[in-house]
Amino acid sequence: MDRKKFLHQAALSTGGIIAVPFFASGRRRQPEGDPLPQEKVKEFVVAGHGNFDQVKKMLAEMPTLLYATWDWGNGDFETALEGAGHVGNKEIANYLIGLGARTNLFVLTMLGKSSIVKNFLDTFPQYLNARGPHGFTFFHHAQKGGEDARELFDYFQSKGLTEDKVAL
């Protein structure tokens, strides 16, 4: 075996040895530590609706609150970002998204991200009937977005949506 062929084979073999244990396990990294205290999660989600100073303070103390979800009961789950979304608090919403919070189409509707929202809904029109936290519709989120979400407000009206009515 010549030197070039040997080096090529050695590189392939070494990469395979290193990569096999990582991929063969099929495991994802599991979160470590105890669950977040429920009272802190609820406090953070409530703050996300409109208390920007409290949001920043709590994230400084407990950064993983960014991903926390509060269960209001009966399947009504909400994050601080979603709270900001349904009340129209763009400052908090943009801040949380900037930190990497998981967003959804309802929040993006409030922020007026028309191309993202319309492309998704044109691909999956049944999703027009989806409801966000507390049962709020896309129409509600577009209303809360004001002028930034005007295009989406008009789009939802053209689809027959109203505050309380989903698409037919």
Q: What is the number of domains?
A: 1
Portion in strands: under 5%
Q: The CATH topology is what?
A: Serine Threonine Protein Phosphatase 5, Tetratricopeptide repeat
Biggest sheet record: 2 strands, antiparallel
Shape field: globular
- What structural class is derived from the secondary structure elements? mainly alpha
How many beta-strand segments? 2
Q: Percent of residues in helical segments? A: 40-55%
Strand order of the largest sheet: 1-2
**CATH class, anyone?**
Mainly Alpha
CATH architecture: Alpha Horseshoe
What's the alpha carbon Rg, rounded to whole Å?
22 Å
Average pLDDT metric:
87
Order of helices and strands: HHHEEHHHHHH
Please mark out the parts with pLDDT under 50 across 5 or more consecutive residues, or reply none.
16-24
Q: Ends: how far apart?
A: 71 Å
Number of separate helices: 9
Briefly characterize the structure.
With 168 residues, this protein is mostly helical. The protein contains nine helices and two strands.
